Amino acid sequence: QVRLAESGGTSVQAGGSLRLSCVISEYTANTDCMGWFRQAPGKEREEVAGIYIGGGSTYYADFVKGRFAISQDNANNTVYLHMNSLKPEDTAIYYCAAEGGPPASQATMFSSLCQGLGYWGQGTLVAVSS
């Protein structure tokens, strides 16, 4: 069973920076893509950033381009989300996801560039104050 664990969420003032971490217990043959989603109170879950584990290609939602960066440290089974110039509207629970897992829990991101993201972490809360 693949497990994901996010960390790094906290309260920060607008304009500040945070780095979120997602540790995956193991990479499988299906772990081509990992990504970050977020869900703000009362809103739908939305994609934030994705990365191909093998080639390193990255993808971003328009609202984070130029501010956030996703990176990987394969030696430590970790994917990071570097968040800069944070805004109050970035306040949300941030979830890490990886390919595989139960079909019922699978999501896609970036027009199916990343598919079958069915392993999820418990989420980490980012709260940005103005």
The level of helicity is: under 10%
Task: Return residue spans where pLDDT drops below 50 for at least 5 consecutive residues.
Answer: none
| Overall average residue pLDDT | 94
Number of helices: 0
Cα end-to-end separation: 40 Å
Number of distinct beta strands = 13
Structural class: mainly beta
What is the element string, with H for helices and E for strands? Answer: EEEEEEEEEEEEE
Strand content: over 45%
Q: Please outline the major beta sheet.
A: 7 strands, mixed
- 3D shape: globular
Radius of gyration: 14 Å
Would you summarize the structure shown here?
By secondary structure, the protein is mainly β. Helix content is 0%, strand content 50%. It starts with a strand and ends with a strand.
Describe this structure in words.
- β10 and β11 form a beta hairpin.
- The chain has 130 residues and is mainly beta.
- The radius of gyration is 14 Å and the shape is globular.
- The protein has strands at residues 4-7, 11-13, 18-24, 33-39, 46-52, 58-60, 68-73, 78-83, 92-98, 107-109, 114-117, 119-120, 124-129.
SSE blueprint and pairings:
Blueprint: E1 4-7, E2 11-13, E3 18-24, E4 33-39, E5 46-52, E6 58-60, E7 68-73, E8 78-83, E9 92-98, E10 107-109, E11 114-117, E12 119-120, E13 124-129
Parallel strand pairs: 2-13
Antiparallel strand pairs: 1-3, 3-8, 4-5, 4-9, 5-6, 7-8, 9-12, 9-13, 10-11
